[in-house]
Design brief:
β10 and β11 form a beta hairpin. This protein is an alpha/beta fold. It has a seven-stranded parallel β-sheet with strand order 19-20-18-17-21-22-23, with helices on both faces. It is globular, with a radius of gyration of 24 Å. The protein contains 13 helices and 23 strands. The termini are far apart. The model has no long low-confidence stretch (mean pLDDT about 95). The chain is about 30% helix and about 20% strand.
Length: about 500
């Protein structure tokens, strides 16, 4: 008998947990159904005969419309269902009750910073102002490894191709994101490495950085140095000396900020990994903590679920603006708003953007929306926040870090080795991936299709994230991976 799951009582499709062969019989709601086609694992199968232009219901919501007649027991995918989404939409605020119960206090072992912030790592960061000094920054971090001592964990360079030959919003984005990262509390010290002739040179960037601790942030202009490598290593030595004696202390989980992201999703993502992260979000917020959901294009089709969880009408209108601004960004560049999901998503069983979005937004759990952030904004309000950023994994994860996330939770059904400026926890949606890519994956949510209890698994995952906040290395950290990327939209000079 085939292993299959119907997610919501109103669904007219179910998801195959294992591959279904033509002629196999499976049971849904106690009724037998015989497959009339093969159905790959993670893909959908029709639970009744569907006429052409019939809404396909998954998660209790439409994920598109049939483009032809579909038989009961037939494979449902891109060949017979298409998106039902249109262009810009009008929205009405219909608030729903979203209050979470307060949870028992929880703690992690982190670093208290002099400015009142907390960090989950005690690293030294080298942040180039411009791509021209990327190789120097990378070489400097490598040589500085021998200087690491005490509680300092690592010296990390964050190369990027920007900082010059940019105009308008692109230039502003670069300066804002770099300034945000310079202030990030996971860095015990920061060396800002400039060239000297770039648009976003150190003097300009200081205007975006604002007040800073001179013991924690150092600056070096390579064109003004006779030996930038020697001078840079000397400054890094000072930064290390300043924080090497810091010790981790017990800190309330209410001060933890966690970013929520997915990539390389599959048909299991909306059943296992994303709902698990949603449970984590509720558990953290119930203890006074903060989570940040981003990748706006992957809210399209599920945005009203978020809008109606906004705590007040002002946040509702900000969320409408968040969605429509991104739709207009697509239109201004002559691109189809709903050019999604990706080939990997489709191979994994996701058929339309609604299908992807309804699974994606489950990472937000059930908490009320407390804040809406523009790209480059830093989080100010505890609870669930929505952040403007694209779906691109590196750009969105960097945006989460720059917004203040100490850790990024990244769910995936296909697997990816990438990292971000902060610890990036990879959660597999299926056990096959978790077993095949053990060097990439930190937590296996695939057990939820194998009989594991969601509440128990969520508690285990919550404890795991607190361990990461307390210093446990994730796989990408063990591999020495550190990535960052900045949102580019316009002209390069």
């Amino acid at each position: 008998m085939a292993n299959i799951i119907k997610i919501h009582k109103d669904d007219n499709v179910a998801v195959a947990i294992e591959e279904i062969k033509k002629g196999d019989t499976f049971y849904v709601d106690g009724q037998p159904i015989t497959a009339v086609t093969d159905v790959p694992a993670g893909h959908k199968v029709a639970l009744s005969d569907l006429d052409e232009k019939t809404p396909v219901i998954k998660y209790g919501c439409p994920i598109g419309n049939t483009v032809c007649k579909v038989s009961k027991g037939e494979w449902i995918h891109t060949h017979n269902v298409k998106t039902g989404l249109g262009d810009l939409l009008d929205y009405t605020y219909a608030p729903v009750e979203t209050k979470l119960p307060h949870k028992q206090e929880a703690y992690f072992m982190g670093y208290e910073r002099p400015d009142g912030s907390v960090g989950v790592r005690n690293e030294i960061w080298i942040i180039p102002t411009v791509g021209c000094v990327n190789n120097i920054a990378t070489a400097m971090a490598k040589q500085a490894a021998g200087l690491v001592k005490g509680s300092v964990e690592e010296v990390v360079a964050f190369p990027h191709p920007y900082g010059c030959s940019q105009m308008g919003d692109d230039q502003e984005h670069t300066r804002t994101i770099l300034a945000d990262l310079i202030h990030h509390p996971n860095a015990g010290g920061v060396l800002v490495l400039g060239l000297g002739c770039e648009n976003s040179n150190i003097d300009v960037l200081k205007g975006y950085i604002g007040e800073y601790d001179e013991k924690r942030v150092k600056f070096l202009v390579c064109q003004e140095s006779d030996d930038e490598m020697a001078d840079g290593l000397a400054l890094i030595g000072e930064l290390i000396e300043n924080v090497c004696r810091l010790e981790r202390t017990k800190i309330s989980a209410s001060r933890l900020i966690v970013g929520l992201k997915c990539g390389g999703s599959d048909g299991f993502s909306g059943i296992t990994a994303n709902p698990l992260v949603g449970r984590f979000s509720d558990l953290l917020i119930g203890r006074g903590g903060t989570t940040i959901l981003t990748e706006v294009p992957e809210m399209f089709g599920a945005e009203t679920l978020l809008m109606n969880r906004c705590e007040n009408e002002a946040l509702f209108h900000q969320t409408v603006e968040l969605i429509n601004d991104f739709k207009n960004y697509f239109k201004q560049h002559g691109q189809t708003i709903y050019e999604n999901p990706s080939p990997g998503n489709k191979k994994g069983g996701i058929s339309t953007l609604e299908d992807k979005s309804l699974g994606c937004t489950q990472k937000s759990g059930s908490a009320p929306v407390k804040g809406v952030l523009a790209y480059g904004d830093r989080v100010k309000t505890a609870g669930l926040n929505l952040l403007s950023a694209p779906g691109n994994d590196l750009v969105a994860a960097t945006a989460l870090a720059s917004a203040g996330a100490h850790i990024v939770l990244f769910t995936t059904g296909r697997g990816t080795p990438f990292a971000s400026p902060v610890p990036t926890v990879k959660i597999a949606s299926n056990s096959r991936l978790a077993g095949k890519k053990a060097g990439w994956i930190d937590f296996n949510a695939g057990v939820l299709t194998q009989g594991a209890d969601m509440d128990e698994t969520a508690e285990k995952f919550f404890d795991f994230v607190l361990e990461v906040a307390s210093g446990r290395k994730v796989r990408s950290e063990e591999a020495g991976f550190h990535d960052m990327a900045i949102f580019k939209q316009g002209v390069t000079l």
